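Worked example (supplementary).
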Amino acid sequence: MTIYGLFYIALVFALVLGAAFPLGRYIAAIFEGRVTWLRPLETGIYRLAGVDATRQMGWQSYAIALLLLSVIHFALLYAILRLQYYLPFNPLHIAGMSPRLAFNTAASFTTNTNWQAYTPEQQISNGAQMLGLCVHMFLSAAAGIAAAAAVMRAFTGRGLKTLGNFYADLTRITLYLLIPIALIAATLLVLAGSPQTFVQAVPLHTLQSGTQPLAIGPVALQEAIKELGTNGGGFFNANSAHPFENPNAWTNLLETWLILVIGFSMPIAFGHMVKDKAQGRTLMAAMAIILALGCVGAYAAEAAGNPQQIAAGVQASGNWEGKEVRFGIPASTTFNVSATGTSTGAVDSFTDSYTPLGGAIPMFLMQLGEVTPGGVGSGFYTIIVFALLSVFIAGLMVGRTPEYLGKKVQAKEIKLAMLAVLVLTALILCGASLSLMTKSGLGSLENAGPHGLSEMLYGWTSATENNGSAFAGLSANTPLLDYGLGTAMLFGRFAFMIPILAIAGSLASKPKLNEISGTFPTSGPLFTFLLIGVIIILGGLQFMPADTLGPIAEHFLLYAGKSF
Amino acid sequence: MILRELRPAISLVVLFTLLIGLILPGIFTGAMQAVLPWQANGSLIRQNGQVVGSALIGQNFSGPRYFVPRPSALSPSPYTQDTSGASNLGPTSKALLASVKQRVAAYLQAFGPGPVPADAVTASGSGLDPDISLENALRQAPAVAKARHLPTATVIALVENMAHHPFLGIIGTDHVNVLKLNLALEHLPAS
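After joint prediction of all chains, the assembly is encoded as:
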């Protein structure tokens, strides 16, 4: 570990948090319908789609609209993946996906997970990437942000019956937020060397390895939204480690910034929406502190290197297996930690080959529930769940009815919040343990010993938390994992989001109480640390036994000189 | 209630598929092809009228006349240009430790006793890593110079001339692009 590496982490945080304040204000303006610079296009879309943007929806209508759009978009992607052979932009005549792989992939991109059980270079055409995957990267991100907007509105007034219009939210977020930033970022990526062409293979006459096709395509645009929308689905198998997705250390920094910036802007937007900016800063601080600890921890673990390799005569300059020379250790670990602290799941280095503790940190950040800062939108509504649980626990301690922003938090909300949290935990732990009891599940593992357990646990964690990164040695294209993880992704997204919209609907209709001297303050350092405690205890502690058997056991075995 | 939402939901999916899936990439690709054609087409390097590679994508070289790149985990052969990926072997993997030991021995044999840079004996994330660390390149330079009958100082000067350094010590690493370095070797005047 060097001071330069720590400076790099500090630089990332400075750039992200510095941008989150103005961007958060802009996002709040989008939610409130005050951004109009593409008005003709926006109203044109409403007219063609038959959308009345002024119609206000209650929480049920909002949830139904979101679900229905997701189901339709899922079906369209499934069809595109099955039929890609017949669709345009398929110069290599790549065949359609099998039903189970198409199901898994469609679930993955509809839920903003971007888990990739397929090998992009061999199994997907440029046309399916553009018309299918890339569109989902925009819309699933926009749907998540829209749900967050609905939750924010619940706290803005008293006796509210409605949470906004889903279609208008989706359209505005896509037009005013995602497309402009993605286009600017994509241009910078092309400038650095990311390709943007409809060609899928270029014949090369290599110097010593004969004639070979070079894989290429419309990479830059997909790469930009892949990070910005916390999607993570790589154009290539190697994801952001591939030089065409991530040409140099500058693009690596840009991509890390894109991964984090909307997630950290959401609490700021919330502060503007509820006209109490300190509330937003308090949530943001909790997110940032946990993420910063994760970044430093993973960097320290990877910089320490692999003791068995060092004993074998390798220079002690960190653990380089699965990492790229142009990024270096601190930029690699910061990228991967950022992509698991959000629900992005992109990688610029391969977590399966990280040291045990270096790999445990990304897994633990996902297990916390994706709140540091989490997926675009989803990270915000998840941290609101933890904030409600925090005021509830504080209320139990002091014996007062808990309130959050003047809204009484009662049994109904807490039951729904615990339901949402526990559904995911049960899915991860049961899914991973049941898979490991089957022959098929064990056959999917690349590594033996405790690392094998980590591979499967990481897979179920990643799918359920809608992250999409992997201990990529796991062979995920099997019937068990295609269907199992596909279902986990759908539950992880919708069985979590709908209870939260229900909470929002319930809170919206309540009166907004005035703050009095006995009100527990939900802004400031005290609440930040209470919230961090609740996130780690409620989100993380339940995974400690499993994590102890996986990465923690492996750490001690590694230093004891054991290999498997 | 659901029927009422059907038209806007279907229409928005169709409209955005056309807008984001077709119109946007169409315009953006056209613009990039016009403004930044070299980058947009894969940063291809031509020599004698043939495309020999991409400046960004590593390819396989074997010594001693060339600098050798990092190990690559790709199959069927290292640096296969239309695949990408890592070994995914974990830190306590027997297979990984065995390959590292084998590579350390081969490295010491090829380049003489001395430190073994970590990047020289570990597989990269992409399997297409175009770079090696500056340290690794400098360790290889004497052997390359010998095989090409060049003064060692000339080859070392070439490596240092082509090296990238981190900006302010923070962004990036000390490294050299292997393909560009090997192409430049070919243009060095023989002694």
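Two points are worth noting when inspecting this output. The CA atoms of residues 150 and 191 of chain B lie 6 Å apart. Helices of chain B lie at 2-35, 37-40, 94-111, 134-147, 152-162, 178-186.
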